Each structure stands twice: as structure tokens, then as C-alpha cells.
Amino acid sequence: MVLLKNLPKKTQGRKRIEIKKLENLNSKQVTFSKRRAGIFKKAAELSVLCGADVAVIVFSTAGKVFCYGHPSMDTILDWYCSGVTPPAVSDDTAGDQSPNRVPVAEFNKDYMEAIRELEEQKKRVVEVKEAAKMKKVVMGVVGGCDERFWWEDESVDLDALDVQEVEHYLIALEDVRKKVAARFHEMKILNGTLNPGALPPIPAVHRLCHLPMMTNGFSGHGGQFGGGYHGFGI
Amino acid sequence: MVLLKNLPKKTQGRKRIEIKKLENLNSKQVTFSKRRAGIFKKAAELSVLCGADVAVIVFSTAGKVFCYGHPSMDTILDWYCSGVTPPAVSDDTAGDQSPNRVPVAEFNKDYMEAIRELEEQKKRVVEVKEAAKMKKVVMGVVGGCDERFWWEDESVDLDALDVQEVEHYLIALEDVRKKVAARFHEMKILNGTLNPGALPPIPAVHRLCHLPMMTNGFSGHGGQFGGGYHGFGI
DNA sequence: ACAACTATGTTTAGTTA
DNA sequence: ATAACTAAACATAGTTG
């Protein structure tokens, strides 16, 4: 009713857009602001409604960071990075048969594979038992791309290396870290410390960070596309 | 028009709800699933539309984690935790006077502090000379420049180490990596390759991980409320 | 637990101030 | 950049299999 008058529309209203990189800089920025705010709001609502603990980190293409965290960024990252299971709410775990249960078949498969890999590694080389001292070694020095071994004599001052050398070192270091992280994860699973279905290798680094719960604005960034997500079942 | 018939409604449709803890367990779980999916979708859209890099971590009250990360969880957390500024997109920094500019004084402060820390570390080196054997500690070989890195010579069985040792090693490794990464960034700034405002091509580390990543499910948690967020200006 | 299904409630693209 | 305003697009609460 009361539709007799065809009143002129003031705007054409929201228009559907394709989900692909916005080419117009201005609309990209505006959209970024609006949607970022939208996500933060949703995150806050989720955390209130469902008692969930949520963290959101966003880097703009200009390199600024924005984040939301409940109960705090720090807490969430600690939980995530350490793989420590945060205290469960009794209500929700009461009927929870196996929140994280992995099918036995799958578990066995992974387990056997892990064992096999383990055997292979054992065949490779030997020695090194005083490795416990490694910690000190690694923490003590930062060396470089030199014939000399990095831990010998005095540490190599990073200043002595040129940018390329440092870059190369950095790449290699990251690679090693990943390997060790993977091994660590594996051990914890074999150990029983970790659930077979648990998260992939966790960079220890994150456990070391203690940043404020919410920040905005420092710089740098580079954008790629094609994120993925998933998750059903609480 | 055509509203003469008061056709019976099949459902009463969506109803407004107050944003407060849902008491009903079932609806809480359902809402959690739906809204979590919603946030992940929004995050993915934001990252595609605006070229933003986004990470979302959600802990259910049952203690399961769900996450979304673009280009990867690891990358975002690395950026966030290390404070390393990800590479900026030229378009977006063009008119950006100093999105991320760090006051010279502050920069100097950080730099001096890093140097001092380095000095301290040098002093510690002496007590770990015997660790030379450590060169065989890390397993695989990491390809690289003509020079060989310390871990390249022979691989070592990580199995020789127990979990705690590996963990220590991992933490220490990460620490070193961070220092090198920081130094790398610093060098490029000092270098002129990069002025404090404009940023260099991606730090090598991050170039290694550009996979969207997603996980779900391990356990534990505890819910409190009162998150905060913020952020305006790109 | 999950999948449809609507009928709303909510977000937001485009526009203007 | 930020804010307001619409109208359309989208998300989702409640309900039913």
C-alpha cells in the first residue's frame, strides 16, 4: 500500500561488487576502512555472544596494522603459539566427547609415517650429544657467510656483512628454524604431549612476543591474494 | 501492490538479538559456527578487495581453535610480533607522507640498544667455544651461496636431542632469526636502499611463505569478555 | 552436529556534504 | 580523509528436516 507514488530514488543504493582487487585507490581505502571496522565489530560480537576468544590482525597495503583481541592480543597469541589449551568452560566441554579427536585410521597413518621418518633420520649421521649446550651457543652469537664457523672465536659482527650476505643468512636461518620447528612438533606428538590433530609446527618466536592488545599504525606491507579458510564444528 | 493477500509466514524471520552472552548452549554453538564462518568470509573478502593481509584466530569456549591467515598465519604473526614492516605497495604509499616513519631519535635509540645487546652477547661467546661440534646439529642442507653455512657441512640427527633440548634450540634459533631480520631491515635503511618511510622489497623470510593457511581444532579455553578495538586511517 | 529455508536485521557501495 | 545517507545486498535467528 501507499506505493502509488513512484518517488524518485535519491541514490541507487548499495551495488553488488565482484570480490576482486579494487583498482580505484580511493574506493579501496574507503572500503578498507568500512570493512575493517565491520570485521572488528563482528569479532567483538562473536566474543560476547559466544564467549569466544578472538584475535584479528589486519595490515593495510600502506603497511599499517590494526588489531583486535579478546581478552587480549597477547593472550590469544600466547595460546595459539604455545599450543597450550586455554581453560575450557565446563558447560561446553561437558558433552564434548572428543573435541579434537582424530580418526584412528588417520592417526595411525600419520603415526607410522612419523616413525618411518624418524628411522630415516636416525640412519643419517650420528654424534652430538652435548647438544644441550646449543642453546647458549645459538643465543650467544650471530654469525655470517664465512668459512669460519659462526660460533668460533668472536662472534661475527653483523656489521661486517653486506646486505646480501645478511639476506642470504636470513633466508637460510628461516629454513632451519622451520625444520627444527617441524621436528619439535613431531616430537611432541610422538611424545603424547600433543594431540595428533594439533596445529602445525609452531614458531617458538611467538611465545616471546608481548605486544599491546591493540594497536594501529606502523608501516610496510605487500599484498597478495587468495586466502583460504575453513572450520566447522565447535 | 499485491499485498491484498495476507499470506501466512513460514518463519518469523531473523529476529534482533541483544549482544550479550547467549545462555542457551545449543544456540550458542550454532551462532558460533555461523558467525565464525561469517568473519572468515569477511576477512577473506577484505584481503582480496583491499590487498590487505589479515589473520583471524578464534577459540571456541570448548577450546578449539580456528584460524584464517593471508598470506599465511605464520607470516602475519611474524610481521606482527617482530614489528618488521611488511613491504608497502607503491600505489598506497605514494601520497603517504610518513605512514610508518619512526622518529629519528627513537630509531637511534633502538639501534644503540641493539648494538649494546650485541656487545653483551660477544662477551658470552667465550664460554661456549667447545660447542664447535654443534656444527652438525642441524639436519638438512640449506642451499645458498658459494659459502657454506655452519649447518651445511654434515647433517645431524635431531633425534639425538630430547624434546626440551630441541625446544630450547628452537627458541634460540628464532631469537637469532629475529635479530638478523631486524639487522637486515636496518641495513637497508642505513644503506639508502630504503628510507625510513619507504620500505624495501619483502624481507627474504616472508617471501618464503605465501600460502593461505587454515586450521581447525585443538582443545581448551576459558571465556571472559570486554575486548576492545580501534583503528582509523589507512 | 549440519543443511535448508525464509523473513528480517545488518552491512555497505555509491553518493553527497 | 571522515561522516551521513539511502537502497540494495548480504548475513543470520529461528525454525524445520
Walkthrough of the structure:
Chains A, B: Residues 104-135 form a coiled coil. Chains A, B: It comes from Malus baccata. Chains A, B: Its main location: nucleus. 2 copies of one chain form a homodimer. With 234 residues, chain A is mainly alpha-helical. The first copy, chain A, has a domain at 22-86: SRF-like. Chain A is built from 7 helices and 2 strands; from the N terminus they run αββαααααα. Chain A has helices at residues 25-50, 73-82, 90-93, 104-123, 134-140, 163-191, 205-208; strands at 53-59, 65-70. In chain A, strands 1-2 form a two-stranded antiparallel ribbon. The longest helix of chain A is centred in the C-terminal third of the chain and has 29 residues, at 163-191. Mean pLDDT of chain A is 60; it is low at 95-156 and 195-234. Chain A binds a DNA duplex (17 and 17 nucleotides) through residues 9-17, 26-27, 29-31, 33-35, 38, 41, 232-234.
Give the helix/strand layout.
The structure is a homodimer.
Chain A: H1 25-50, E1 53-59, E2 65-70, H2 73-82, H3 90-93, H4 104-123, H5 134-140, H6 163-191, H7 205-208
Antiparallel strand pairs in A: 1-2
Chain A binds a DNA duplex (17 and 17 nucleotides) through helix 1.
